[in-house]
Amino acid sequence: QMSEQFNRELSLSGKIPSGLFNNMFEFTGSWQKDAASTKSLAFDGWCITLYTVALSKAQIVLRDHVKQAVPSTWEPAALARFIQKFGTHIVVGVKMGGKDVIYLKQQHSSSLQAVDVQKRLKEMSDRRFLDANGQSDISFRDAYGKEDKSDRREQRLRFVESSPLNSYASKEDLVVLPRRRGGRDKDMLSHSEWLNSVQAEPDVISMSFIPITSLLNGVPGSGFLNHAINLYLRYKPPIEELHQFLEFQLPRQWAPVYSDLPLGPQRKKQSSASLPVNFIGPTLYVCTNMVDVGKRPITGLRLFLEGKKSNKLAIHLQHLCSLPQIIQLEDDPYNNRTPEPFDRKYVEPIGSWKRFSHVCTAPVESEDASIVTGARLEVISQGFKKILFLRLHFSKVVNAHSVRQPEWEGSPNLIQKSGLISTLISTHFSTAVQKPMPRPADVNINSAVYPGGPPAPVQPPKLLKFVDTTEMVRGPQDLPGYWVVSGAKLHLERGKISLRVRYSLLTAMLPDDEDYPLDDEF
């Protein structure tokens, strides 16, 4: 709602946050993650408009060379060059004057109610803008306490109780951002003194924009450009990596698709095994069929309970529906190697039958620039013991290099096994034992009828106590937005089988693009 309000002031439509909105509230991530980490937004202040300079929108046209730079097809490299060269919007109006505004951002971890946040904002506004005579004599700096120059641009205030013992536990996680534009000596003057100086020293306080695509009607490829600009504004990837980002913004789907899952009696016997996990109760069957997506990158994995009784453990892969243009794949020789004997330290028992059912938690990864394009589960019997393994199929990326170090999602290195002594020491020196805040729920911007898949059964499967079916995926909201799966491992946590996924950023080594001038006129 706040983003839409800002857009209306800028003569823009839609919900995608503008640069002004992001700057005022200091949002730097993707729209989806920023919204999930924020509970509420508010602002209060003064805005003085002295005059406005505006262009007639009906008379604005683009030069021919700008229209000719629009690619007629989906070409990520050309689209990225266009956005970097010409931008996304054109300034058609400027308001001059001054503004003195307090912006307030309530983080997800804050426990304040909306009424309390509004009350805090009013208290700050009264202290900043008013005195007993209705005029403010408090300077910009004194209203928030004397701070170093480096801290004046961003004031992060946390409202605490008077008791120092409870101060840490009662922090309210409100980010307060006072902003001034126009006027003289912005940091030193009181509000009333600043008001009197605005007319002599005005500044730009607002602009009006039109999307550059609104001037490209009838130009072949303008729809592709509009889609690329929307992706860029929504997820905010680094401009220098926009080419790679756009290469991977292709439709995604899960394999196998839901219509391929057997729901009734099957004439053809499927490959499966069993893994006893309890003395009394249903048996956990394991689907050992290979799920191969061909020469297409995988962006996520999940464990799934298939079958009418939801008692067959399977692995599903989320993949791009086509191969990005800059990527070439070939079979990895690693796939034909004989698996090395597994280390016994990775074999962990599961369920009540700990002598009989085990899971191998060894990481499965390739040492070179390879990505996962297939996966299957396997159960190996050793006497009375059954061990569940994860097997991956790799494809090598031709002429590729890694942009940064691979990352394990939910890496075991982040879960430290603390003994009793270390627990007592950390508890003794902690000022307060804090209950961890719940993870903010993702903001779902998918317009599908069932964005999370088909409806789940009313009665949750009994075997969910042994299997974690969380989807481990990375998409455009995980900057820089072109992660691919390069490894995985089975993991046991609190008696449940789960997945840990290794993500990599790989890009093909291409010849440098030809230099092009960036000072062309519109």
UniProtKB/TrEMBL annotation:
One of its GO terms (cellular component) is plasma membrane. InterPro entries: CAD1/NSL1-like (IPR044663), MACPF (IPR020864). It comes from the Eukaryota. GO terms for biological process: plant-type hypersensitive response; regulation of salicylic acid mediated signaling pathway. Residues 1-246 form the MACPF domain. It holds the Pfam family MACPF. This is MACPF domain-containing protein. It comes from Aegilops tauschii subsp. strangulata.
